[in-house]
Structures are given as C-alpha cells and as structure tokens.
Amino acid sequence: MDAFFQPKSVTIIGASAKEGKIGYEILKNVSKRARVFPVNPARKEIDGIKCYRSVLDIKESIDLAIIAITPEGILKAMEECGKKGIKHVVVISSGFKESGNEEIEKEMVEVARKYGIRIIGPNCIGTFNGKNGFNTFFQRHMQLPDGGNVAILTQSGTFGIGLLEKLAQEDIGVSKFVSYGNKCDVNEVDLIEYLEKDDETEIIAIYAEDFSPQFFERRYKKPIIVLKGGRSEAGKKAARLHTGAMATNYDIFQGVCRQLGIITVDNFAELFSIIKIMSMQPMPKNGKVAIITNGAGPAVVAADLIDEKENLELAELIDLTGSATANDYLNALENVGDAGIISLIFVFHDAPLAATLQKFYEGFRRKNALYVAIAIGGKFVMEQKERLAELSIPMFDEPSILINALDKVVWFKNEGSGNR
Amino acid sequence: MDAFFQPKSVTIIGASAKEGKIGYEILKNVSKRARVFPVNPARKEIDGIKCYRSVLDIKESIDLAIIAITPEGILKAMEECGKKGIKHVVVISSGFKESGNEEIEKEMVEVARKYGIRIIGPNCIGTFNGKNGFNTFFQRHMQLPDGGNVAILTQSGTFGIGLLEKLAQEDIGVSKFVSYGNKCDVNEVDLIEYLEKDDETEIIAIYAEDFSPQFFERRYKKPIIVLKGGRSEAGKKAARLHTGAMATNYDIFQGVCRQLGIITVDNFAELFSIIKIMSMQPMPKNGKVAIITNGAGPAVVAADLIDEKENLELAELIDLTGSATANDYLNALENVGDAGIISLIFVFHDAPLAATLQKFYEGFRRKNALYVAIAIGGKFVMEQKERLAELSIPMFDEPSILINALDKVVWFKNEGSGNR
Questions:
Q1: Which residues of chain B lie closer than 8 angstroms to A400, CB-CB?
Q2: What residues of B are in contact with residue A297 (Cβ under 8 Å)?
Q3: Interface test with B, best of A210, A304, A357, A376 (most B CBs within 10 A)
Q4: Of A6, A8, A239, B357, which shows the fewest CB atoms inside 10 Å?
C-alpha cells in the first residue's frame, strides 16, 4: 500500500495537455513529487514531458498508475497495467456503480485481481500524504495541511476537500488521506489495517456512506471516529446516487460501533472538533472538568452543557473575575485539583489578561491533563487561537461544540480505549 | 428610555484621568458621541474637559448619568442625580447583590424611585446604539457592529462583548444593545417593551440567568430568542455568584416559552446562527427545504440532518455534480419548486463553479424563499462568505448548526409568528 502514498514513478493514464482538464492538473500535481509518465496516444509530449501511447511503451518500472479516462477504455487500460506489472492503481474517473454501470466496475476488478493489482476508487480524488505532500488531486488551488497524526478516509471527495482545507486553515496536520469513492477493491478495512501499522497515524477519521461487513469484526488498535452519511431515507437515496451505497439501519450501526469502541458523530462540526482535540492533546485521565475563567457568563453556559453530558462532570469552576491577569491564570493552573480536563475560558477585551498574555504563553506548563480553551469574539480572539495552537491548546469559539466533543473523547477513554 | 441610547449630555460619575481605568475609558468613549461632564472631586479637568465635584455643580441639563464608583458612594451619587433632575442612570459598578450586598442595591433603588430615576445595572457594561455608535463601554479595542435590525439584551457583559464582536466580524448589524447585569430596576420586560416600539429593531436576542415573572405574562410583538444560563445545578450556582440569579426549573421555563412563541436555544452557536438567519432573511413560507449542490457528500449529511428535524422536510435534492457552473445554479434556482427554504451547497475548489462565481453573484434573483448557503473549507470559502453577505445570503461552514437553527426558525413561523 505504500505505493499509494510515496511512489517514485507514476503513470497518468488520460494525461491531458489542456490546462484545467483533470488529466493535466493531476500530471502537474504529481510531477512535483514523483517521476511522471503521462499516457495519451494523441500526444508526443506534454509541457516537455515525454508522452506514451500505452503504459506498455514505458521502459521504467512504475509504482503507481492514476487513471482519469472514461469507463469505456478502462478494461484495456487495466489489462495493460497488469501486463506492465503495475500493482497499484487509483481510478479517479466516475461513471461506474454510482451511475448504474455496476457491470463494468466488476469486470475492471476481475482484470485487476488476475494481475494482483490493488485499486483505490473509482469515483474519487485519490490519496494525499501529509508528510511528503504527494497527492493525486486535480484541485489546483486547494490549501493542504502539513504532516501530522490524523488519517482521513472518505467516500466523498467533496467532503475530503472541505475537511483538508479546514484542517490546513487551523494548522492540524494529516498523516495520510484517502478518498476511496466506490471502493471497488481497497475498502475502509484494508486502509485501517494499513494505518494501524503506520507510524505517522495516531487517529483515524472516516466519512462513509456504507461500510463493509468486515468493518464490524474487531476492535481497532487506534481511535476511530466515524461520520456516516445516508442515515435518513432521503440521505440514503442521495448516498445511493453518490457512491452506490446500500442502506443500513443507523441505530444498529451505532450500537455495533459503540461495542467496538468506535466514536460515532452526527455532523461535520463534531467530527472536526474531536479530530482537533485528539490530534493536539493526550487522552484525559478522567471526565472531571475544571473551568478557569475571567468571565462568568460563558462559564455558566459551559457548566450547564457539562451537566447534560453523561461522561463529563464539573469538578471546579474558578472565576478569576474580569480583573484577572495572566499570573492569576498561571496560579490557578498550578493549584487546580485532579481534573482530567482543564478548560480555560478567556475574555480578552481590555481585560488585564489581554495586556499580560505574553506572560501566559511563556509561563504555561503542561501537567497531566487535557487542555482546551474557549474565547468568543472577533479578530483579536482569532489571533490568540494561533498562539494557543503553538502550545498545542485547541481553542474553540463557543462552548457547545467543544463540550459535545469532549464528552465523546471521555467516552472513548472509558469504553473504547482498550483499542489504544 | 431613549436617553439610554442617544443622550445629548452625559455625566460620568467616577471619571478618571488615568488611561486604562474604567472611569477614563468610559469618558473617552462617550465624549465621541455626546457632550460629557466628568465628575471627580479630586480633578479640575481631564484631558482638557472641565471636571465637576458633583453633578449638582453642572449648570447644563443632563440626559444620562453613568456611574463607575464603588458601592460605598452610590447612595449619595444617586441622591444628587435625583436632585439634579437626571432621569436615566447606568450603574457600571459591581459589588452589589452578586457579592451579597443586597441591602445597598435595594437602598439605591429606593432613592431612584423617589426621584423617578430609571437604572440600568448595576454590575454591567451598559448600552450601545448600533445606529449612532453611542456606547457606555470601557472596552477600548472592541470591534463594534454597524446599525442593523437585531437587539441584544444580556445579563452577562462578557457574553455581550463576545457576541457583539462576532456580529461585527460577520457584518451583522445591531439596533440596540443592553447589558443589564443585576437588573435592580430596568429589567428585560421593560427593555422588550421599549424595543417592540423601536423602529430599528426586528429581532430581540436575550442571554439571561433569571427572568422576571412578568416576562411570562404575554406574547411579544417581535421574535424573541432566548439563551438561558444557569440551567444545571452547577450553572445555577455559578449564575447566583454572577448576577444573583434565583434558580428556576429549565423544563418549565422552556415549556412556558414555547407557549408564548419564544425561541429557546441551548448554546451560543445556535443563538448566533438564528440571529444570522433571521437578521438577513425573511420568514420562510413553509418548512420544505430544497438543496442545490455541486458536491454530494455534504448534501447527504444535510439530508440526514433535515430528516431528524420536526419542522423541516426535504423537498428536493438537486445534485448538479462537480461540473456545475454558476449558470447551472441560476437555472436550478429558477426552476426550484415551492420550498420555503433554499439551501445552496457550494464546493468551490477548482470546480467550474469557482471560475464563474461572478456570474452567480450578478445573476442571483431573490424569489419568495429563505436562502442560506453552506461551504466547507479554508480561505477561499471565507472570501465567498462576504460576497454572499452582500446578497443577504447567510453562509455557514457546515450543515449541522445551520439546520438546527432553521428548524427553530420554522417552528417560530408555525407556532410563534402570531407575534410578528
């Protein structure tokens, strides 16, 4: 599977010379991190790179093929990949199972099996490696995250793009990313198995519209967070048109996930928040929360929200009042009890805290706890988000999404951490 | 009550000459929009403005007094305001009921009643008028919103600052803002009565830790959105220390609000989202939602979330696929059925849509529907948020909070709109 993430030589079948075309953008993108061998029978070269009629004309050995041609030519292309000895293929093209063309997808897999080829896709945007930047994307202007400890698996390319950009925007690093679309061959279980052994990956987040039966067979060695699309009737119908996903009952799905210690989330905000917390902070030793604040209003709301959660308990609410300075925060942090989670609420504006923040950033010392911060506001608050990120403290701009996420993190620590 | 928002002459009792002090910052702030008369027996002038020993020494008539002295001097100051004929006083100072000093707060109110004075506060940051920028704040670097149709009432100053900054950041305008703290005299009901008659105000949002009994006596003429702090035991305790709020049962509170057509929300994210939708868009004619998208994944999740909501129904899911251009969106909008809510999902990145956005912005024509947009991503997406705001279309960066908010907006339209 390594060839999907760090190939030395890559052929792009369906390479194009026309800017903006998928086959051009992939070629340009891949050429930055690997030796490329474009295949297009109508061209001799593209932007000075020699072009081939078929992969069979390439002399060098090829680690990975990326296919971006219409389904009609796919069987011949796959056959030739097999003969050439290529073992890893990403099929970007759509027009297969999701469009009712199940037959051609099956035949393509049969050809691949004959040659021992593994396929990612079709109907996907392929792979991205955060560490070396390698990706099979045709998106030119996308913000991509740096290397990190979060792996993303997604059936939806769209969802993947949005999530990668949001992670990049908030400086959360990614180990490996796979958009696997119709998953005609490599499925989420194959990918999890790979990622369990991957040293870079500590957390695995999945967006999927259906799951393979093997997904439910065992507990995993790393934390898994799942957002399932197509839970409702309307969503199921849309999912079937999207990735050809079969319907399952969501309650049963959720129950089985719970037994396996898999975190299920209902929406994108929750998924992102849990990723953010788990990628930046250690597991909490317990679900007790200490709140340290210089503003009572947000602390009252946070206390209410904690009270509603099964796995959280408010241990201390330390209101330093508006006159608190960075030193007061540092002292409070020093003297806090045995709470597993320490939530700092900051009201910055023209409070003495704002003027002494530098001291806080310099004086902050981590103890055995999971730290998070909340600050509501505008530009100034956003700047502090970056400073706090340097201390690995995830900052949220309101308490509710954070507290939902913390509840699930503690649930995982209690129920699911057998697999960590 | 107008004098709280557009006074011509204002005295600041406890004015200070020292930068950073509350009494200095308020003076500076108020002097930008009104004639100021600082009171401080120790000073002859502050920054060139004549200073008075007492309000009784001021010859001009005074519309509003802002008091920022400690509780010890408060009775004398209030007595003098009465003698001077001042009818409106904002008491910024804390150290009253919330600190156990209920007696002095009561005596202060007795003095005020004797002279027909109305008090906002104590333990608050006072008022802000979005239209003329007048405010009684001591925050110097706060981002303030422009004028608009949303009124904010809050017991927590902190909460108010955070909310105002976030509204400013997202270009949502405010009509009137009142931080009323311990509400020793003017309470939320007085303020709502005033705002019901205020031409600028169309929506009223409230954060409060306790409500006056009269709050529950009638339906209001304008939509009211309420976030109640202190719902849980821990929150109640914190609220008591914060604004001296008495405990009430939240379920009962919520039930009564429902009967009165008042929208209750559980957290800041929901409050903000409902404000955003209602301030930018008309009431929907029904709860049917049409989704128009160029990316299936986010649409599947949105469909799932809509299905879970009592007041929403998915009417159409139009997947234009990744190849959609602005024209396809405009055509789909032209041909959409009778849905009351039209949700545009945009996947911008290197999609043909991104290149043709200008056409969309120019060609967009409003029909009889509530429009919203969803786009997940990074910098590019944030830029589109501003462009969409110019068309009054609120943009959200993921579906879940939006759909929660829409459900409550439709509930209001069905159950609560007797009061609009």
A1: 266-270
A2: 154-160, 207, 229, 242
A3: A304
A4: A8
| pTM reported for the whole predicted model | 0.88
Angstrom CA distances, B42 to A308, B25, B66, B78, stand at: 52, 18, 18, 19
**Residue A189 neighbours by CB distance under 10 Å:** 18
Distance CA A402, CA B238 (A): 20
Say if residues A337 and A315 touch (Cβ distance below 8 Å). yes
| Range(s) of chain A covered by CATH 3.40.50.261 | 141-280, 282-418
Full DSSP string of B67-104: E-S-GGGHHHHHHHHHHHT--EEEE----SGGGT-HHH
The mean pLDDT of A83-109, rounded to a whole number, is: 95
Residues B353/B347, Cβ–Cβ less than 8 Å:
yes
Mean pLDDT, 10 residues at a time, chain B of 420 residues: 97 94 94 96 95 97 97 96 98 91 95 98 96 93 93 93 91 97 96 98 95 93 94 75 68 90 93 97 96 89 93 95 90 95 85 84 94 87 88 92 96 74
**A53 vs A354, more confident:** A53
| Residue A314, both tokens | 């408010």
Distance CA B420, CA B199 (A): 14
The partner residue sitting opposite B230, judged by closest CB among A304, A306, A354, is A304
Q: How far is B347 from chain A (nearest CA, A)?
A: 7
User: Which of B231, B233, B307 is opposite residue A235, by nearest beta carbon?
Assistant: B307
Between A and B, how many CB-CB pairs are < 8 A? 243
Of B141, B269, B376, the CB nearest to A401: B269
Question: So what's the pLDDT on residue A419?
Answer: 45
What is the chain A residue with the closest CA to B137? A350
Dihedral Cα B71, B75, B76, B82, nearest 10 deg:
130
Reported ipTM: 0.81
Helix (H) / strand (E) containing A275: helix A268-280
Q: What is the pLDDT of residue A244?
A: 66
Q: Would you tell me the crossing angle of helices B296-307 and B399-411 to the nearest 10 degrees?
A: 40
CA distance B195 to B143: 23
Structure tokens at B19: 């930068």
Question: Under CATH, what is the fold of the domain A1-124?
Answer: Rossmann fold (3.40.50)
List, in sequence order, every residue forming a beta bridge with A334; answer none if it has no partner: none
DSSP notation for B307-369: HT-SS-EEEEEEE--TT--HHHHHHHHHH--S-SEEEEE---TTSHHHHTHHHHHHH----SS
Closest chain B residue to A25, measured at CA: B350
Span(s) in chain B for CATH 3.40.50.720: 1-124
Q: Which of B179, B291, B301 would best serve as a mutation to test chain A binding (most A beta carbons within 10 A)?
A: B301
SS3 assignment, position A403:
helix
The CATH architecture assigned to B282-418 reads 3-Layer(aba) Sandwich (3.40)
Give per-residue pLDDT as tens, A173-188.
999 999 999 999 999 9
Question: Quick one: how far is CA A408 from the chain centroid?
Answer: 17
Nearest to A276 by CA among A285, A288, A265: A265
Structure confidence at residue B419 (pLDDT):
45
SS3 category, B17: coil
- Cβ proximity of A107 and A75 under 8 Å: yes
Tell me whether residues B349 and A139 touch, CB distance under 8 A.
yes
Q: Which residues of B touch A296 (CB under 8 A)?
A: 156, 158, 238-239, 241-243
pLDDT per residue over A259-284, tens digit each? Answer: 999 999 988 999 999 999 999 999 99
Mean per-residue pLDDT of chain A: 92
Residue B237 neighbours by CB under 8 Å, 6+ apart = A303, A317
**Contact flag B297-A268 (C-beta cutoff 8 Å):** no
